[in-house]
Hints:
The complex is a heterodimer of chains A (877) and B (109).
Chain A: H1 11-20, H2 23-44, H3 46-59, H4 81-96, H5 98-126, E1 139-145, H6 160-168, E2 172-188, E3 191-200, H7 204-207, E4 212-214, E5 226-229, H8 231-237, E6 247-250, E7 254-262, E8 275-278, H9 282-287, E9 304-310, H10 316-330, E10 339-345, H11 365-406, H12 411-445, H13 448-452, H14 461-487, H15 491-496, H16 499-502, H17 508-540, E11 550-554, H18 560-568, E12 573-579, E13 589-594, E14 602-609, H19 613-616, E15 621-624, E16 638-642, H20 643-649, H21 654-657, E17 661-664, E18 668-676, E19 691-695, E20 702-707, H22 712-726, E21 734-736, H23 737-779, H24 782-790, H25 795-829, H26 839-867, H27 870-874
Parallel strand pairs in A: 3-8, 5-7, 14-19, 16-18
Antiparallel strand pairs in A: 1-9, 1-10, 2-3, 2-9, 4-7, 5-8, 6-7, 11-20, 11-21, 12-20, 13-14, 13-17, 15-18, 16-19, 17-18
Helix pairs in contact in A: 1-3, 2-3, 4-12, 5-11, 5-12, 5-14, 5-23, 11-14, 11-17, 11-23, 12-14, 17-23, 17-25, 17-26, 23-26, 25-26
Chain B: H1 7-18, H2 25-36, H3 42-55, E1 58-62, E2 75-79, H4 81-100, H5 103-108
Antiparallel strand pairs in B: 1-2
Helix pairs in contact in B: 1-3, 1-4, 2-3
Amino acid sequence: MKSNQDILPPKSADRFFKWYCNDALFDSIYGDLYERFLENIEANGEKKAKRKYWVDVIRFMNKHTLKRSNKTSQFNSNNTAMFSNYFKVGFRNLIKNKSFTIINVLGLSVSMAVCLVIILMINDQMGYDNFQTNRDKIYRFTHERTNGNVGLPIATVPMPIGERIQSDYSGIKELVRFRRGLNGEILQNGKAISLVGYYTDPSFFDMFSFELEQGDKKTALVNPNSVVLRKDIAEKLFPGKNPIGETIELSENGTYLVTGVLEEFPGKTHIQFEALASMSSVSTLEKDGTLKSVQQNWQSTTASWVYFTLNDGADLGSVQSYLTDYENENYDETTEYIVEFNIQKMTDITPGPLYGNQIGSAMPNFFVYGLGILALLIIICAAFNYTNLSAARALTRTKEVGVRKVMGARKRQLTLQFIVESILVSMLSLVVAIGLLQFLIPAFEGLQMSSLLSWDLKMTGKAYLQFFVFSIGVGLITGLFPALYMSSFQPIQAMKSIISSNKLSKVSLRKALIVSQFVISLVLVVSSTLVFKQVKFMIEKDYGYAKENIINVQLQGQDFGILKTELQKLPFVNEISGTNNIPNTGMHYDIEVRRNSPDEPMDFNYFSVDESYIDNLELELIAGSNFIPGQGEGNEKAIIINETAVKDLGFDSPINAVGETVTLMDSTIVSISGVVKDYNYMVLYMEINPLVLRYRSDEFNYAQVKLSGFDISGEIQQIENVWEEFDPNHEFQFNTFQGQIDEFNAFFFDIIYIIGLISFLSISIAGMGLLGIATYSIQIRLKEVSVRKVLGASVKGLILLLSKGFLKLFAIAMVIGFSLAYLGNSAWLNGFAYRVNFGIGIFLIAASAMVIIGISTIGLQAYRATSNNPADALRDD
Amino acid sequence: MNSKIGEFEEIVLLLVAAQHEEAYGLSVTKAIEKELKRSVTMSSVHTALYRLEEKGLVSSFIGDAEGNRRGRRKRVFVITALGKKALKAARDARNHIYNMIPKFMLDIA
């Protein structure tokens, strides 16, 4: 029979009592409760005794027994005085465990540096239009096409919307229209300088906070043919002169009088322009046909932007209801588009969602989010390291915790101490990270896309403050778990090191952290290898035409024929052909083709070429003949098509297609004179489409010059000399064929660069974390290993024993990581017509990277532990 | 210091004095149950003891852990000089009132 003393009071009641009871009273009351419990068992039996115990526990809850807040505590001392001690002990600990400190600081600082760059980027994006005093009151109209396949909302609207809403609704305070079309070249001192800007209303200066350095804001944009210039442009056009009162001759757009020079903008703005001309200039230009007629045209939806502010008391709802009227009035099934108008607040523009026809280039906000997520991933990896290592190292700190508790430290104080330590680490990392930033920022700004989006990564005081807050946040978050864990040790257990056996067995959290770290790095490694392979595949793929030694010279409006005769005099020029477009650079021209005129038209791509094109690019003519040299315009009645076009037009074979006629556009009837073998002229993620080569010398934009290639730079120099004589007004602009394609592909290189960098970071952080954990977990088993060795275990067996646990984690990480990587990457790869396959190779690369890291960390540590002299480890016992 | 004590507190104080240097929460509870045949919860006795301690009528120290208490030490209460005075005052007040009762009435009882 079991004695009464084996019966324990209900555990839950005990826990509850311990939870609420004041420590000072706990022992005496608990003892009483237990004594009473035993008596009750004797008197009333176990069941009733347990119930009574519960009742007693609950009844004991009163103001004497409840735990007190610190304020009323007898230990209420000046906690802040302990801070200096926390820092001191923290520093000593960091110095004592150099390897852990290095792992933590390195991992954190590298990932922090990337996060800091992203903070700067987000700052840059948030900085748009902050100098506009009206920014919260300005709205603009946007539209969406509910039919047609443009899925994006569009920032432009038909121009008449402005006048209509102003006359219909009295709530509109100011309204500014921007109309595109102010582009052209200004001939200045024999050089052509291009100018891009908008026509706009005089109210521009009332609504937006742009200031004029010279000129009068009220009148500058009133008269027709007046123009206001950005400061740097004015200086470029009129160096050393006062631009006011000067005139500029802007190609076919006419002559403009400079009436103002803008002050330098105090910040970034989403409205990007070099010059603004008065809207009153537009009517004449539209009348004489220089500009398309859009001022009264509701069907022209892409030429103008309309911004407005409201009077006090006016509301957007009524504006929106007028917009609905305009939609119904102007658009139905018979118009080209069915349009839906919307209103967008100016502060939502940049950063904001992706819109078509933006008034300046802007990074869509999902891109910012994407970068943010990547940054978050690596900072999480690094934070895991800290959490993991400090939780593992907790053992060595148990004695300290015990002593501190005995000396009267409260749990809260200990938590604070460990958090201070982790903040110390994150601060240290911040210093290193800011150092790293000096290298990272130029690298980021060197990316193709950053020049496109004109990132301006400034290290302002505000940015430093954000960094500071960020690193404190990182320190807090990473330190919280270890701090709570370590401060919860009971002093007696801590001093006896009982924790080692039972608390460390609950390491599932740490295991989960290691696994997730490796899953993240595996996914990134697999993805970056895939992206790299895909891009390499696309770049190295045989395009089916020759591009070696060819340079593309921009004609800049000059006559191709004359240039050709000039260049042909050079001995090293092998071939010259003219074209409107360079293949594989993202641009393509479309043309409608019909085999018989009643047929549905098909959209083919087309290139305008001359008779040398096929020879120059070494295309293979598989049937028929080339354009006839010397025939000139006579060739315009003939076309050459590719094999895909033969198939799409429904001819049995290339031979049969030759000599047939097709209709281009509405009525141009041409005959097929030849068929070329399919070659790849599209962006490489698309299939080869049907293609038409037309003879249209008036459309040429480029002269493609094939050089002999013995001395490329010298030969280019000589061509430049010819150009200088030929057209002194324009600068010689050229690129090599390959260079031009690479320029277009630079975007892909950027992506490789970013993903590669981040996956490298994450795998090295994961590796460092593993090294730390392995070092530690083997350290605490050193005695066990020594005893085993003394008893005759082999080194091989010991290494296996020590690595076994990690092997399991690796296996789990690989299964999860590879499946995630497969799913994620299939999604984007399917968008490519020519794609690489996963293959076993990619997974092998990732797996072997893991194995190498594993062997070099765990294996090495295990080997070191086992090859030690067991006597060294056991001597002290 | 206000050393007015209630009836229950007086009983507890009496018993603390009676169980000289042996009084702790449970012992006092049991004594009340036994001597006064009155059911009382342990928590109310503890509370009374703490209140007496706050009033300075008893003092406490951490005692030993003998008995079936899973090694938990007792909190032993002893009466202070102030406590003795209070007891005496209470008793004197009672006696005074007792003496006011006409003698003949007591005879019947």
